[in-house]
Specification:
Blueprint: E1 2-7, H1 36-47, E2 51-56, H2 57-60, H3 64-74, E3 78-82, H4 88-101, E4 106-110, H5 112-116, H6 118-124, E5 130-132, H7 137-147, H8 150-155, H9 157-161, E6 167-171, E7 174-177, H10 193-200, E8 215-218, E9 221-222, H11 232-238, E10 243-244, H12 247-260, E11 266-269, H13 278-290, E12 298-303, H14 310-318, E13 321-329, H15 333-338, H16 345-357, E14 361-368, H17 375-388, E15 392-397, H18 405-412, H19 442-457, H20 460-472, H21 477-498
Parallel strand pairs: 1-2, 1-3, 3-4, 4-5, 8-11, 11-12, 12-13, 13-14, 14-15
Antiparallel strand pairs: 5-6, 6-7, 9-10
Helix pairs in contact: 1-7, 1-10, 12-13, 13-14, 19-21
Length: 504
């Protein structure tokens, strides 16, 4: 059966929308993620014997007209359409238009937003046949199997579809929510996502501002046991238990990338927190060293500030790790406690000290607008970021997504400025703020992030550091120039007129 896995276009005229990022947007650094979850599902469907096309309209900058031409020419029976909160109305419009030209196709939506709001989504347009909630690889596999059996489906549509765990579907105007699907326990069953990239995508279309270019992104695990109240993937897709592939399986994919995608310079491990299981981290590093892979490619990981010690970082560096990405979030311990981050300021300081000693780069993530935020705590955050003096840093207002505790807190507290999901981004597709706190308006939160970005990157000490880095590490030059080309235009004022807040 023909299946298209579609990352639909959104705001193409303004840039490349990174739908698979944890905070989907057209980014100021030019970063655009692979459609990683869609790609895993495409691989599962191909292994099940279906003819699959993975179409990433965002990375290729296809508009709607081009998208429809490609989809219609392919004539899929099943259309799997990825979604996000800020693009949801656009995504549903595209799905409905595809249904008009391909009325016999079955259209199913996937992603964080529809997992959290399946009934609301299905009610927006009758053209949508179903939603696959949460971790959807095997939900799609089972759906594709029954769609292949035309006669059986026509005779017993309700009975057949109601057996598929994780599916919400419409039949005769009634929305049915099947029981939830258990999370996949053996992740070694999944295909290498890099094989899917090689077959379907041009890897040079993708970019991560802190990683060396070209790069690929893979997952070595799903889920996260941390209790951070804002993080979208554990709360809407993969749960709060960290399930992971074996070290041998992970290193096998590294080998595949080195051999089959030799142009790749960097591998991003996009697990929410790769470093939770320190013993497994060490095992992967030892295997990379034993096989000589550490000399051929570098890699980066998301990390927690309380999960690594100096010796583990040194082993990671030796095994090819180049970059750590921790969520420091705030320079106020009270704010960290309020969002249940589970780390201390001392953890963050020691983490940074050890990483620098191990000669690992750090991209630090900071956030303002959390419960209890004030002008004073925001200032503490900027001072703390400067004190840590990281290779790169990002500053964002809290962005609340349906399905997260942060969204419930903002909504129930009366802080949510709008119910229009399109307002989660500016007209030009940049990150926006939709919460008004008692002491801080959304406009002020946006203004502070713009200010923090400028103050952080325009320090003389930071500029001298980057010049030294480029001189002594020429390999860093390409990613720095590629990122700076887009980033600098926002740094010097253009974001002030494009970003909008909500005054209420």
């Amino acid at each position: 059966m023909k299946i298209i896995c579609l990352n639909p276009p959104y705001k193409t005229k303004f840039g490349r929308f990174s739908r698979s990022s944890r905070s989907p947007a057209i980014t100021k650094s030019g970063t655009i993620y692979y459609p990683i979850w869609l790609a895993y599902a495409a691989g599962v469907l191909e292994e099940a014997g279906h003819k699959v096309k993975l179409l990433d309209c965002c990375a290729y900058e296809y508009d709607r007209k081009k998208t429809y031409e490609i989809v219609v020419q392919f004539q899929p029976k099943l259309i799997v359409l990825d979604t996000s909160t800020p693009s949801i109305y656009n995504d549903i419009e595209i799905a409905a238009q595809l249904k008009q030209v391909l009325p016999n196709s079955f259209i199913i939506l996937v992603g964080t937003h529809v997992s959290a709001l399946q009934e609301e989504t299905l009610k927006l347009n009758d053209a949508i046949d179903a939603v696959a909630r949460h971790e959807y690889d095997y939900t799609l596999k089972e759906l594709a199997k029954v769609l292949s059996e035309d006669e059986l489906l026509e005779k017993n549509k309700y009975e057949v579809l109601s057996r598929i765990d994780g599916l919400s579907f419409r039949i005769e105007g009634v929305i049915i929510n099947n029981k939830g699907r258990e999370y996949l326990a053996n992740l070694n069953e999944l295909p290498y996502v890099s094989k899917v990239y090689k077959k379907h995508l041009d890897i040079k279309k993708y970019f991560f501002s802190a990683g060396q270019y070209p790069m690929v992104m893979i997952m070595t695990g799903r889920g996260c046991p941390a209790r951070c109240f804002f993080c979208v993937y554990p709360q809407t897709l993969h749960g709060r238990t960290y399930r992971y592939r074996s070290a041998e399986n992970v290193v096998g994919e590294f080998e595949y990338i080195v051999n089959e995608l030799p142009e790749v310079k960097s591998i991003g491990i996009e697990d929410d927190t790769f470093t939770f299981n320190k013993a497994r981290v060490k095992q992967i590093c030892e295997l990379l060293l034993d096989k000589g892979i550490s000399k051929k490619i570098n890699w980066w990981v998301n990390a927690r500030a309380n999960t690594l010690d100096l010796s583990t970082m040194q082993l990671m560096k030796k095994a090819g790790c180049r970059l750590l990405i921790p969520g420091f979030e705030s320079g106020s311990q009270q704010i960290l406690n309020n969002i249940r981050k589970g780390i201390t300021l001392e953890n963050s300081s020691q983490f940074t000290k050890s990483a620098k000693k191990a000669k690992l780069l750090i991209h630090g993530c900071f956030m303002v607008g959390n419960p209890g935020e004030t002008e004073e705590t925001m200032t503490q955050t900027l001072k703390f970021a400067k004190k840590l003096n990281l290779d790169t840093a990002q500053f964002f207002p809290l962005i609340v997504y349906p399905g997260t505790e942060a969204y419930k807190w903002a909504r129930n507290s009366g802080y949510l400025a709008t119910k229009n999901y399109s307002a989660w981004l500016t007209e030009e597709g940049l990150h926006n703020c939709v919460i008004n706190l008692p002491e801080l308006s959304s406009c002020r939160l946006v203004e502070f992030c713009n200010k923090a970005r400028k103050e952080y990157y325009l320090r003389l000490s930071y500029i001298l550091y980057k010049l030294k880095q480029i001189i002594f590490s020429p390999a860093e030059l390409a990613r720095t120039i590629k990122s700076a080309r887009i980033f600098l235009k926002y740094l010097f004022g253009q974001d002030n007129k494009k970003l909008r807040g909500h005054k209420g």
